[in-house]
Write a structure and sequence with these properties.
This protein is an alpha/beta fold and 387 residues long. Helix content is 38%, strand content 11%. It binds pyridoxal-5'-phosphate. Belongs to the DegT/DnrJ/EryC1 family.
Length: 387
């Protein structure tokens, strides 16, 4: 077997990114400035959004979006349990009540057909998460939003480059929030972007992200600027730095190539693991879309094995294959079990996936040999532990 550990993900950082960061460091301007402006503009154009506002993370973007929408304490927000906890935690932190809707068993995206029964007079928004980079079925979600006057906030952390019926995520009639964490399809180290056609929301998020200051600092210190500013509301400190955007402006032109390579590896896994009865492979949604393949997440059929999912991951690690866990369902985490208990068997598909899911290595720099090693190790672990 391989002698070197293969991580489940690692970013592709090349000379262009490194040189651009060095350029920022030497320029005398390292925080929010011209490179952030450029990255915002180029990302906005790439996804086809009228407005894009950069932030220090997607979590910050979700936070400020919820504040900008001015919901009231106790208002309800519908979302999925198969997500990173921050999607749901930020609702709690804003005084909102998260209402969890079960997922589809194949795509692991929110089941749009089960949303209607969870809508109440207090429902204000739906937050679909494009799981693993595959678009949720947005048409029925937008239909419900129109019928009940709800805002759609897309958690697009996995979905830079994803398309739904020929349109890029980020250009739909909603507010979309992207993440540039190192594991995501492109990275700025840490970072996020709020994309929307709603100018008022974009302006409010821009104000809230930097002290509620009426003018951004770099403009004040620029040759043509004046140093005056005004605090028009109490704001946060969620701005992206130029040394982060320096990475982003060289990552973005590579995004489509990254997705192509991720897709090749995912298809290789699909092909090589198709006959493995102990795995349930990720399913393609039936509508037209472009899957960004942020994650490759088979479910391990633990009934057929003498080990559980965590044991499966541990044995892969012994064979030098790293894995990720995306995700233990949100309602299964300690705080949520204590504070947002879900009725028994109310989220059966999420519970099923939560106990069986793992993320196999998937990143653009992986070689064909790496991918073959993963397949071989998965088959070895299964053969060893078959009941
Ligand atoms: C990564 C992630 C987030 C949070 O993004 P950050 O940029 O780390 O704040 C939110 N939701 C999902 C689904 C994610 O994968």
């Amino acid at each position: 077997m391989r002698s070197e550990f293969l991580p489940f993900s690692t970013p592709t950082i090349e000379d262009a990114e490194i040189n651009e960061v060095v350029d920022s460091l030497k320029s005398g301007w390292i925080t929010t400035g011209p490179k952030v402006k450029r990255f915002e503009e180029e990302f906005r154009a790439y996804v086809g959004a009228p407005f894009a506002v950069s932030l220090s993370s997607a979590t910050a973007g979700l936070h400020l979006t919820l504040l900008a929408l001015k919901f009231r304490e106790g208002d309800e927000v519908i979302t999925t349990p198969m997500t990173f906890a921050s999607t749901v935690s930020i609702c709690v932190l804003c005084g909102l009540k998260p209402v969890l809707v079960d997922i589809e068993p194949g795509t692991l995206n929110i089941d749009a057909g089960k949303i209607r029964e969870k809508i109440t007079p207090r429902t204000r928004a739906i937050i679909p998460v494009h799981f693993a980079g595959q678009s949720c079925d947005m048409d029925p979600i937008f239909d419900l939003a129109r019928e009940f006057n709800l805002t759609v906030i897309e958690d697009a952390a996995h979905a830079a480059g994803t398309e739904y019926k020929g349109r890029k995520i980020g250009s739909l009639d909603s507010i979309s929030i992207f993440s540039f964490h190192p594991n995501k399809n492109i990275t700025t180290g840490e970072g996020g972007m709020v994309c929307t056609a709603d100018e008022a929301i974009a302006e409010e998020v821009s104000l809230l992200k930097f002290h509620g200051m009426s003018r951004e600092a770099w403009k004040r210190f620029a040759v043509s600027g004046t140093p005056g500013y005004d605090i028009v509301l109490p704001g946060f400190k969620y701005n992206m730095m130029d040394i982060q955007a320096a990475l982003g402006i060289h990552q973005l032109p590579k995004l489509d190539g990254f997705i192509d390579r991720r897709t090749e590896i995912a298809h290789f896994y699909n092909q090589e693991l198709a006959d493995v009865a102990e795995l349930s492979l990720p399913a393609y949604a039936p509508y037209s879309q472009r899957h960004a393949w942020h994650l490759y997440t088979p479910l391990v059929k633990i009934e057929r094995l003498s080990i559980d999912r965590d044991g499966f991951m541990a044995q892969l690690k012994e064979l030098n294959i790293g894995t990720g866990l995306h995700y233990k369902a949100v309602h299964r985490h300690a705080w949520y079990q204590a504070n947002l208990p879900q009725p028994e068997n109310s989220l059966p598909n999420a519970d099923y996936a939560s106990d069986r899911i793992l993320s196999l290595p998937l990143f653009p720099k992986m070689t064909q040999e790496d991918a073959r090693d993963v397949v071989e190790a998965v088959k070895i672990v299964i053969a060893r532990n078959r009941k």
